[in-house]
């Protein structure tokens, strides 16, 4: 018997995809505006405080997978699990990789559009056909790993209880080795081990979701305060780094993991609160959350075209209007496109399921 859907997670996905769009939409003023100006500081703050969605989506993936599969898992389910992921994750990834391989060439007037199967194939393993597709390489690794991990957790009950701690220990050990052995991990930002703690934390929350919600309801004010404090510390360190201040590697590593965990947990509570107290807002955000996978795939194409054809010199109000107009555009248009196309039965080829 399948468990009830966690409706609040669609709201978390909506807030996370908005953060993705804010990161990409405010990336340009970080470079174009003078360092230290009020406008630069504002956009820098928005951009950096939005640096949680990749980690949030990894955590949510672990949560949903363990919530859905843990209780009734057996090795007999492995073929069906992989078949489902092959259909609804790998195929959309290949389609959009091909699209961006050609689209980015078309967008660049200095490049003649061509298709080389050998060149395209080289881009696929690490999702290099589009700057945003690295998340797909990452999430496919976690899907490949999940059957082994959940089987180990089923066989070793203490591991189920301390999965979150196991994930933190493994990720910390790899990070420490990488730093002190002076051996940076190749493709580290696209490798599952870089985010392993988040996936395992999500898995722990998924296995004990009702217990987690009870704890969250009792401690929501402490969680909110911790989220704000860690977010402020992360922003402060990032601002200081802009001016050349040196920090230890583990300070950013810690904040870069802790901040997204706290934000995601806070959003779970907010999602549940809005479902009960603001149903219209919750309904709109749930719609965006359900479309978030498609919005993620579509928005860079729209943003790239818009940026090229609506470029405004920095400084005046027109610059800010054009920038925020682009952000609104990449929220609304992909959302509408996905909602319309999802009525078509074969839309899973583009947007998964």
From TrEMBL:
Major localization listed first in the record, in broad terms: membrane
Instruction: Tell me where the transmembrane regions lie.
Output: 12-31, 51-70, 86-103, 131-150, 162-180, 192-209, 221-243, 249-269, 281-299, 319-338
Which InterPro entries does the record cross-reference, listed alphabetically?
Acyl_transf_3_dom
- Cell compartment(s), UniProt: Cell membrane
Q: Which GO terms describe its cellular component?
A: plasma membrane
Q: How does it sit in the membrane?
A: Multi-pass membrane protein
Task: Offer one example of a GO biological process linked to this entry.
Answer: enterobacterial common antigen biosynthetic process
Under the heading PANTHER family, the entry gives: O-ACETYLTRANSFERASE WECH
Q: What is this protein called?
A: Acyltransferase
Organism ancestry: Bacteria, Bacillati, Bacillota, Bacilli, Bacillales
